[in-house]
Write a structure and sequence with these properties.
It is a single chain. The protein is of the alpha/beta class and about 300 residues long. It is built from eleven helices and ten strands. The chain has one domain: P-loop containing nucleotide triphosphate hydrolases (Rossmann fold). Helix 6 packs across helix 7.
Length: about 300
């Protein structure tokens, strides 16, 4: 299937199952979110000229979040604050609730108690349901990359704009070219996903998220399935974006070296709670035995001074 075959609303119908299966979600929620993002009903053409390039960094405040799965208490009275414009990483061993927290921030799930605020406005209503979140734009890069194999690189990056008629085709092509250039893939619009390396797929997924010009972009285990060389290239791509893209970046990872290299601050989660937060240097100097045990292991290649 090619973009030319897509009709407005196709994504929310026959293709939505693939997005859910792969974990890919354009946070505006594809129906109600379309109206929030464009000011027009879902599926209608929107050429109003709204400046989607006007991004900003948003602040995140998490207060006393609790999340259960059956009898498993995954997040326990978790508190965290992320400043506007920060590149912020959340680290910790597998199974400690990192990805669960990320899914709460993007409202793919709901907390059992507590609240998350974006620029001091709550994400969840008093009954725990999602509140309208039309005051900021958010996108997420899942660890699977979630590219459509039937589409070219350019079609993948411009998918949301075309399906929702966000802007004219000429503008979409310009946006796609700009975002691919930002991640070092200038002129690669015509490639098929089968022709891409694992690192290139990650960068295409980032370009697709950037095409929405989000105020908040989230990465779930971005180095998963990447070799060290591709992981370094991805880290340099994200670092480079900080010079040109003004938004808040939140990264969930168990890759300590990746987090130490590119983060302004890092929080470590352990048994459902934040046990340490600070700059990379402060985290490496921590006296908390759990933090030190996670950081100073031979597999990380980091030696105690």
């Amino acid at each position: 299937m090619h973009v030319a075959d897509l009709r407005p609303g196709t994504i929310t119908g026959m293709m939505a199952w693939q997005m859910r299966m792969e974990g890919f979600m354009l946070f505006r929620f594809l129906d109600k979110g379309d109206e929030e993002a464009t000011g027009a009903p879902a599926g209608t053409e929107h050429h109003s000229g709204r400046d989607l390039s006007a991004t900003r960094g948003v602040g995140i405040r998490i207060e006393k979040i609790n999340k259960y799965f059956g009898s498993n208490h995954v997040l326990k009275d978790l508190d965290l604050e992320i400043l506007p414009g920060e590149t912020f990483s959340i680290i910790g061993p597998s199974g400690t609730g990192k990805s669960v927290l990320l899914k709460l921030i993007v409202r793919l799930d709901r907390p059992d108690s507590g609240q998350i605020y974006i620029d001091d406005r709550p994400l969840f209503a008093g009954d725990g349901t999602s509140a309208d979140a039309d005051w900021f734009r958010c996108s997420m890069v899942f660890q699977s990359s979630a590219l459509f194999n039937s589409l070219t690189v350019g079609e993948n990056v411009g998918l949301w704009h075309r399906d929702k008629r966000i802007c004219p085709e000429k503008t979409i092509r310009r946006i796609v070219a700009e975002k691919l250039a930002l991640v070092g893939l200038e002129g690669k619009e015509g490639l098929r996903t089968s022709e891409l390396s694992g690192g290139m797929k990650k960068r295409v997924a980032i370009a697709r998220s950037l095409a929405m010009n989000p105020d908040l972009i989230l990465y779930d285990e971005p180095t998963a399935e990447l070799d060290p060389v591709n992981a370094d290239e991805l880290a340099n791509t994200i670092v480079g974006l900080r010079k040109t893209v003004k938004n808040t970046t939140v990264i969930v990872t168990h890759d300590l070296n990746f987090a130490l290299y590119l983060s302004d601050r890092i929080a470590m989660i352990h048994e459902g709670s934040i046990i340490e937060i600070g700059t990379p240097a402060a985290l490496k100097a921590s006296t908390n035995p759990v933090v030190r045990n996670f950081i100073y292991t031979t597999t990380k290649g980091i030696k105690e001074s």
